[in-house]
Each structure stands twice: as C-alpha cells, then as structure tokens.
Design brief:
The complex is a heterodimer of chains A (about 290) and B (about 90). Helices cover about 25% and strands about 25% of the residues of chain A. Chain A is of the alpha/beta class and about 290 residues long. In chain A, the strands form four sheets. Chain A has a seven-stranded parallel beta sheet, with helices on both faces. In chain A, α1 runs parallel beside α5. Chain A is globular, with a radius of gyration of 17 Å. The chains are: A alpha/beta (about 290), B alpha+beta (about 90). β8 of chain A pairs antiparallel with β5 of chain B.
Chain lengths: ~290, ~90
C-alpha cells in the first residue's frame, strides 16, 4: 500500500490526545469536533465539571497545533483528524502540581494514547518521577516542553527521564535563544535510583518549531506565539500521526519514543547535543518508518 | 518516630511559619503506603467540613487543603512519611 493510500489513517484518525493546558475554545472553527472530552481541575485536583472553555489563550493555541484544521486557508494542525481529551489544569496560565497530576490521571482514564504538557518550571524535581513513569507504564507517551530559560536550564516535567522533552527551533532550523537544554548530572529518581544510583542524562530529546507559530486563539482568531510550549504540540501531533498510521504503536510509548529519536534530522553538533537533542522533529520520516513497520 | 516538624519539607515549613492556625493551605501528603488509615481520617474530616482532599494515585500522594493546625496534626501521624508543598507550574 502506498504511503498516502488512506490519508485519513495518516492524519491522526482514531487517536485521542491528552491535552493539559489552560483549557480550549471548542467553538473555534479550526477546532470544530476536535474536543472529545473536557474537564477542569481545581488546585488539589478535584474535578469541577465545567463546560469546555479556555481560561486564557495558550490552550487553544497548543490544541490548534496538535489537531487544528484548515482555517482561512491555513493548515494549522499537525494531526487534523486526532481528537482531544482536554484538561484545564492551568487556570489563567498557572496551576499546581496536584491540579496537573489530576488532569494527567483524567486523560489516562479517557484512554488517551499520548499527552501534551506545554508547561513546567522549577528545574529538576523528583515530584514528577512517579506521574510520568506511571503514565508511561499505562501506555501513554508524555510529551512536554523543556522550558524557556535558555541553555543550561530545563524544567519539569519535560526534564524527567521518561518524558519526551521538546526544545524549540525557528524558521532557519536553529534552536531559539530561549529554548532550554542541559545535561542533568547526578540526579535522583524516586524508583530507579536505589538500584542504579544517581543518574546523568541530557535534555531535550528533540526539537520542533517553536518560534512565530501560527495557531488558533479564542475569538475565532489566529495568532503567532513563541515558546517551547509551541514546539511540544508539534511533536505530540506527529506522535498522533505515527499512532494512526500504525495502530500497533499505540500503547507502546517506548517504541514510539525510539522511533522519533531515530528519525530526527540532525542539526548542530553531530549526534545528540543539549540544544537540539537528537535533532529536529521529522514527522514525515517518522510516519514513513511507522508505516514500514506495519 | 520522627517529630511532625521533621516531616515537613523546608519550603513548606517556612510557608506554614507565616500562617495563623486557622489559615488554609494546600499541601501534598506522602503516606507510608497508599490506602493507609490516613485516607479514613481525611474522609472523616472532609465529611465534618474541616478540610478537602484528593488522592493522586498517579503520583502516590494526597493533595490536602486544610487549616495549618490540621496540617500539623496530619504530620504527626504514624502513617504519614512526609509533607511537601503543592508547587505551581506555568504554561510555557
């Protein structure tokens, strides 16, 4: 079968994406029918049962990059057939650990195949170890932004060992100045460290477009935003493409992670480095590889 | 048995120092094991309207919103290993 014999299968069909953010505007024309489920969590993680809405603009923007459709002649989404289980965990732009973890749990309970966390901060924290590892063991790849404080920095959960941390590139395929990335040296992991001792590893895993990214915002508008927040949903959308093109890869976050790291386009220093990770996301190469494995 | 204060993460201890007994704060309670009697205690206190809580299975801890005096009471329990702040994260 040719790569494009069934285009719907290749643009995210039947993939449910967990979206942890400021909410989402379900009435944006680019997101019509894309929001399959919605929940809002309070500061200690209680579900509030509010109808879908965006408490800011950020969530509608990241949602558009994951699965937005053509709007005003512009294709804004990477996987326009994918759908969202969207959890409002950053009320007005920030949220507590409990709020975010409750949202992660809620998306897992909805049977998402991948989750996007365009959020973070605070350097490395073992607090993220259990939620990220448990989500991974539940078969869900955790994709997270690496942070916007520049080189030699990173934020959790993107810098957790089991998260797919994503940095930001601009239109010339160079890493943006704000994009995080560093070697984490001698850090402890709640579950692994007693066996392996302190860990040393490099972040991010890969980079994706994160400068002047045009996507949906509330009020039927499009706007260009900058940030690793904008880069992570490109990777998440690409994961949805891979999981729709080869359903055997759903529920296998380790295989999907390996596939993406093997298909990035290498920029900067040869091999892995602290700016690009393994390289810049190459969604077409990832899908071609996924199809060849089917 | 560790003293209640010894179970408080440093950042949480300084936050609590700034509060009066009835001031509310939300914290993460790390039980010695999930399902320990602490959940029964919290359920009872919630029914009485003294606090609110949510079990975060994914993270192996319990988010609790309660007055300072109750937080210190929770810290004193044998089935609680430690308490930490409920930190905030930003979009970005």
């Amino acid at each position: 079968m040719g790569l494009f014999a069934d285009i719907h299968r290749l643009i995210g069909e039947r993939v449910l994406v967990g979206h942890l953010d400021t909410g989402v505007d379900p009435n944006h024309p680019a997101l019509g029918g894309r929001v399959a489920a919605f929940e809002e969590c309070d500061a200690i993680g209680n579900a509030l049962g509010t109808p879908p809405h965006d408490s800011a603009e950020h969530g509608t923007h990241t949602a558009g990059t994951i699965c937005g459709r053509n709007y005003n002649g512009i294709n804004i989404g990477v996987a326009p057939e994918a759908r969202l289980a969207s959890a409002l965990v950053l009320n007005g732009g920030s949220g507590t650990f409990a709020q975010i973890v409750a949202g992660m749990q809620w998306t897992i309970d909805r049977d998402v195949q991948v989750m996007n966390l365009s959020l973070g901060g605070g350097g490395y924290s073992t607090l993220w170890n259990l939620p990220v590892l448990n989500a991974t063991l539940a078969g869900v790849l955790v994709v997270a932004s690496i942070g916007n404080s520049g080189q030699t920095t990173s934020g959790g959960p993107g810098n957790d060992l089991f998260a797919l941390g994503v940095g930001a590139t601009h239109f010339e395929d160079a890493v943006t100045g704000f994009s995080g990335g560093q070697s984490l040296v001698g850090v402890w992991h709640t579950l692994l460290s007693p066996i392996f001792g302190p860990l040393t590893y490099m972040k991010p895993e890969l980079s994706a477009p994160g400068a002047e990214v045009l996507s949906s915002v509330p009020g039927r508008q499009l706007a260009a935003f900058n940030g690793t927040s904008m880069a992570a949903p490109h990777a998440t959308g690409a994961v949805a493409l891979v999981q729709s093109s080869n359903p055997a890869l759903r529920g296998d976050p380790f295989a999907v992670r390996s596939l993406f790291l093997a298909t990035t386009e290498d920029y900067g220093e040869a091999g892995r480095d602290q700016r690009f990770g393994f390289g810049r996301l190459d969604a077409l190469a990832a899908v071609q590889t996924a199809v060849s494995l089917a | 048995m560790a003293a209640p204060e010894a179970k408080l993460e440093a950042a949480l201890r300084s936050s609590l120092d700034a509060l009066a007994d009835e001031d509310e704060i939300d914290v993460l309670v790390h039980p010695t094991r999930m399902g320990a009697p602490i959940e029964g205690f919290l359920a009872e206190a919630k029914r009485a309207g003294h606090l609110d809580y949510n079990v975060l299975k994914l993270a192996g801890c319990i988010a609790v919103q309660a007055p300072k005096r109750l937080i210190l009471q929770i810290a004193g329990r044998d089935d609680v290993a430690r308490l930490s702040a409920n930190p905030r994260f930003k979009a970005g």
